[in-house]
Amino acid sequence: MKIKITKSISDNKILWIVLLLPHLKTDYIENVKILDTVFNLGRVMSGLVIIFLWIVKRKMHLERLSLLLMIMQFWLLLCTYLNHLSIRDSLLRLISFVCIVLLMEYMFSRNSIKGLKCIWFVLSTFIFLNFLTILLYPEGLYNLGGERKSFFLGHVNSMITYVLPALIISIILFFVEKGKVFKVLLICVSILTQLITWSATSIVGLAFLGVLFIVTYHRKIVISPFYSFVTGMVLFGAVYFFKVQYFFQGLIENVLQRNLNFTRRTVLWDITLRYIRLKKWTGYGVESVITRRMKLGAPNSHSFYIEIVYQGGIILLILFFVFFILLSVQLKNGGKFAGLISKAIFSLLIMSIVESFYGQTVFWLLILLGVYAKEVDEGLEKLKEQNDEQKRFERNLEANHYSNGG
């Protein structure tokens, strides 16, 4: 009896949601001291419970890709230490990241579809709350340092890191379970959110995802994350070194309503690359926002491809290459979810040419969904078999009813 009770508690959906929630806290929560403190305490409690669950389930093991991601985060911590900076922020990020990895490993090894629903619940709750703040506070829920408007999910450009995984999960769950109304509603709210706040980066990313989804709807096509990563790097080089954006001046200025230096981003890239030349291999680690503003005039370089080199040097860049190669091999023969998540990763890496999302924990959520895509596809296959079995049972029951003169 004791074992059954323990199992029912450890596999409880509400418990999984509570454990995940504090690790996905939004920028608004971080800027409200009381909420930030509560969520930080929640992270500590969540971490302890997750470790306890791992101790109880002794046969658990980590995916090699998850382990590699942890090594990358640890390398950032080491780079921060080598630069004689405070390791508090990078250490907290590492701990939170490890907790998410351990929790996702636990959830997806136990019941991948239930784990997917838990992630969807947290993300959808945040997205609906964010949409409510957009309607109630059209000029912004809060404002930091004269930047553009920010809402519950944070700055308008960072909202896509919550929206993208939520959209992918909504599309998958739409086809396999009841309660389709909420899935459609979330998709509509997510698109409306981006249109109302008009983040050009997010609009382009969603457009890429939409086109890829429509074109490949009836075909199982997996886009190699490694090719997506290389494509992003090549396009960054084309924009920075060859100024290809000038060929699309009308689209950028008239439709996306941005200038040709992408709102001063090319200036930030110039400054960042000058710093990179001084510390090519180990980078500068995770610096405080105040330090970055003093050096750049902005909280980051606004490009994932040079931000990873700035923080972790060429060594971190090599680790990313290795990770995306291994992820591509793992997704190669994947199913429907693997195909969809690969398109989302492609979209994210294209947007990352002009944005640096990877400092946000929720950025890694989409990448980790790719790591556990195989478990999700297996779960979807089992769910399909169960649904087919249920339909056959209902048809047989109905046939017997009529044959008996019912």
How does this model look, in words?
The protein is mainly alpha-helical. Helices cover 73% and strands 1% of the residues. Strand 1 and strand 2 form a beta hairpin. The longest helix has 49 residues. The radius of gyration is 22 Å and the shape is globular. The two termini are 43 Å apart.
Map the helices and strands:
Layout: H1 2-10, H2 13-20, H3 27-30, H4 33-56, H5 64-82, H6 88-136, E1 150-151, E2 154-155, H7 160-174, H8 180-197, H9 200-215, H10 225-242, H11 249-255, H12 265-278, H13 289-296, H14 304-331, H15 336-351, H16 361-371, H17 373-403
Antiparallel strand pairs: 1-2
Helix pairs in contact: 2-6, 4-6, 5-6, 5-14, 6-7, 6-8, 6-16, 6-17, 7-8, 7-15, 7-16, 9-15, 10-14, 10-15, 12-14, 15-16, 15-17
Average pLDDT level: 86
Alpha carbon gyration radius? 22 Å
Fraction in beta strands: under 5%
Question: Residue ranges: pLDDT <50 for 5 or more in a row?
Answer: 1-5
Order of helices and strands: HHHHHHEEHHHHHHHHHHH
Span of the ends, CA to CA? 43 Å
Q: Strand pairing plus helix content: what structural class?
A: mainly alpha
What is the number of beta strands? 2
Descriptors:
406 residues; mainly alpha; 17 helices; 73% helix
